[in-house]
């Protein structure tokens, strides 16, 4: 591959992220403006949360301003704090860790499975101690982690599981939505995701424990029992618990509702184009492997990840794609190698998989033109 980056006219460049935009978005945003109320908890917020419950089968769904915010809510609801340990895969976005570090918990990194780039159940069990309170399972790139094995380990040790499903909205594992296998799940609706409202997320609550549901309700109400006032149980609200402002406004909820209604069309388009691209790439003797999901997963194709043989190959591949106007990115610097690792996290001696060089995930605009351009440039 030629590693020289040539200039490509801006009009021909294919960016890493192109948000899907439902045809109903403008009308729904107009409804919000005409209603005169932009605050959280309006008609579109309630409708979107009801849709999420029906779509996922969760006990409860709460719109949040971000996936990070949803995980911070989970940390507050579980009462995590100093002295508690939370196990996180080292190959993930930093917010997977900071959401729990912010509560005062100690982050314990575990290794990943090289076949999936997600949490390795065997290494996970080795990291559990008497201080372990929670495990965060990350679903990478539209694939799903081995939730059956992870949840079995959690049950044996009596710890909670939280699913960071930021990249997995619309995917399924054995017919179930990621985010529904554990105590809590967290989705992202950031502009870089399959479904987006610019900036947003959702907390998925799967436990039917009344005490836990009440804690979540108070956290949503910024640490008060205002929900009891609305239900008529009390005449005035009081400060009752930790909490904060986690909910988005009605503009975001309206955009999300339009996107939820268009989800199947969106996913069908992504899957059709991704399948077309992968089939052609895999016919060729290329110096990288396409990361595929396991048989239990139906991916949303958040992106297509390619695992290069070494750093030089990864750099050459990225330069080649960039020179042909196709944006791509290298994922992630493992958290145990990050500058913050010693302050807030417990770093063990060896994490052999993410220490291997060369992993590069290449994301593309899911259009037929993008597929043809990738196919043509790979032949050169």
UniProtKB/TrEMBL annotation:
Gene3D superfamilies: Type I PLP-dependent aspartate aminotransferase-like (Major domain). Belongs to the DegT/DnrJ/EryC1 family. GO terms for molecular function: dTDP-4-amino-4,6-dideoxygalactose transaminase activity. Its EC number is 2.6.1.59. The gene is wecE. Keywords: Aminotransferase, Pyridoxal phosphate, Transferase. It is an enzyme of class 2 (transferase). Pfam families: DegT_DnrJ_EryC1. PANTHER family: DTDP-4-AMINO-4,6-DIDEOXYGALACTOSE TRANSAMINASE, TRANSAMINASE. This is dTDP-4-amino-4,6-dideoxygalactose transaminase.
């Amino acid at each position: 591959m030629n590693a020289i980056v040539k200039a490509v006219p801006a009009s021909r460049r294919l960016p890493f992220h192109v948000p899907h935009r439902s045809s109903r978005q403008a009308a729904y945003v107009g409804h919000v403006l005409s209603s005169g109320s932009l605050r959280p908890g309006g008609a579109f917020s309630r409708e979107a949360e009801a849709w999420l419950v029906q779509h996922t089968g969760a006990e409860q769904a709460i719109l949040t301003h971000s996936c990070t915010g949803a995980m911070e809510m989970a940390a507050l609801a579980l009462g995590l704090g100093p002295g508690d340990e939370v196990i996180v895969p080292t190959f993930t976005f930093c917010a997977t860790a900071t959401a729990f570090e912010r509560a005062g918990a100690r982050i314990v990194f575990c290794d990943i499975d090289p076949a999936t780039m997600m949490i390795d159940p065997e290494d996970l069990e080795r990291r559990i101690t008497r201080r372990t309170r929670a495990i965060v399972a990350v679903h990478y790139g539209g694939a799903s982690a081995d939730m059956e094995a992870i949840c079995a380990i959690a049950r044996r040790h009596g710890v909670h599981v939280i699913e960071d499903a930021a990249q997995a909205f619309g995917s399924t594992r054995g017919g179930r939505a990621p985010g529904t296998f554990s105590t809590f799940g967290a989705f992202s609706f950031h502009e870089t995701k399959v479904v987006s409202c610019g900036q947003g997320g959702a907390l998925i609550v799967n436990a039917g424990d009344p005490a836990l549901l009440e804690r979540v309700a108070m956290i949503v109400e910024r640490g008060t029992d205002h929900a009891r006032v609305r239900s008529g149980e009390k005449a005035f609200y009081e400060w009752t618990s930790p909490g904060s402002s986690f909910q988005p406004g009605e503009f975001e909820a309206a955009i999300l509702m339009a996107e939820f209604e268009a989800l199947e069309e969106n996913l069908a388009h992504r899957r059709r184009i991704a399948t077309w691209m992968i089939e052609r790439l895999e016919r060729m003797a290329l110096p990288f492997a396409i990361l595929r999901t396991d048989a239990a997963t139906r991916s949303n194709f958040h992106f297509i990840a390619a695992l290069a043989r070494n750093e030089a190959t990864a750099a050459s591949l990225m330069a080649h794609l960039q020179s042909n106007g196709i944006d791509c990115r290298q994922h992630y610097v493992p958290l145990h190698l990050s500058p913050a690792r010693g302050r807030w996290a417990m770093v063990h001696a060896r994490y052999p998989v993410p220490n291997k060089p060369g992993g590069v995930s290449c994301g593309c605009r899911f259009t037929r033109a993008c597929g043809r351009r990738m196919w043509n440039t790979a032949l050169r």
